[in-house]
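Section 5.1 Outputs to date
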Amino acid sequence: MPNSIAMEKKVTVKVCTGTLCYLMGGAELQLLPERIPAEIMNRIDFKGSTCSGFCNSPENGKAPFAEVNGKCIAEATVEKIVTAVREELGGVGYGSK
């Protein structure tokens, strides 16, 4: 079995559901599980998060915020989250969409 440890790796994705994030585009991110490419879908644990607090520090960037394995994604979009997930999974064998 080729690299079974890497094949079993899961990525945790948290989407901030705080008011600012929701209003700034996070509402679209609530549909994230429906927009994730099939080849990585079973490798992701999705979690909602009440206000993550990233908006309290300007150096974190702008809302909406998400986290991929604890890394802050500012101005989060489905595309940015998918890219970050693929990077966490090592990128090998995962097409662009």
